[in-house]
Amino acid sequence: MAANSGMQLFSSSGDFADFDFGFGFGFAGDCPQEAAFHPPPPSVEVLPSEVSQNVKYTVEPVNLGELTLLKGRVSTHEVFSLSNSDLVPGKYEGGLKLWEGSMDLVNALQSEIQAGHLSFSGKRVLELGCGHGLPAIFACLEGAPTVHLQDFNAEVLQCLTIPNMDANLKKSQAPECRIADRDIRFFGGDWSNVHQILPYVIDNEEDAIGDNGSASGGYDVILMAETVYSVSSLQNLYELVKKCMGCPHGVTYMAGKKHYFGVGGGTRRFLSLVEKDGIMTSSIVAEVADGSSNLREIWRLSFK
User: What is the pTM (predicted TM-score) of this model?
Assistant: First the structure.
């Protein structure tokens, strides 16, 4: 799917409708109040063998500097019986769309590696709100042996994320570059409870620090793009990051818009939670101002 550009939020192929409120999301119904009628989906692990065989999946290239990845295209109507929205609070959280922050994040990760600030070798990686999973796919291609991906909707994982991961790994033709050859796993569920099924979660100090004083629990690198749009979910997202980020050396890379007009979220709103809590420090990695959307940012979080 094409990333958000200008006023067109969706592909013109007929799979999706043009529907824009000017702040980056098309909604069905009356917005946040609808979430009350949709309890969060159960947290489940989705196995690669559970990939959907009933939804048409096609791919097209997306160029990210010197890197070319594949992005999948599936129909929101086929998967969710939706044709005019890329967000229905509590039911569908936009995972079938390739948001521009995902590409911003991959570009920033490339720059961090080139500058010697980041390595995925030997690392446990978690992508939250993954959708297409391009940042997680990039981490795989850069040698991360453990990559876990989470999305609100299990259907997104079955119809898009798993096929997209498989297509990109096959395209790379690198040794041991198959889902079956890595610790690559997929988890569906809401940020308020998905930690209950994630393999590397820090529930107490013993989980965080091993017998020799080194980090043992948690993920080394957490990736998330366009996850901070909803004010109502920011606290759950931050609590999940704290539960999942390895201490003391874990890092989180967050890409998003500075402000999501009309829905109240944004990178700065999320960072205010981080600052108020006082256990992490944040630093800006990159800014993107291309004139086609709100100012976009990539931030790095780490423990103090």
Answer: 0.85
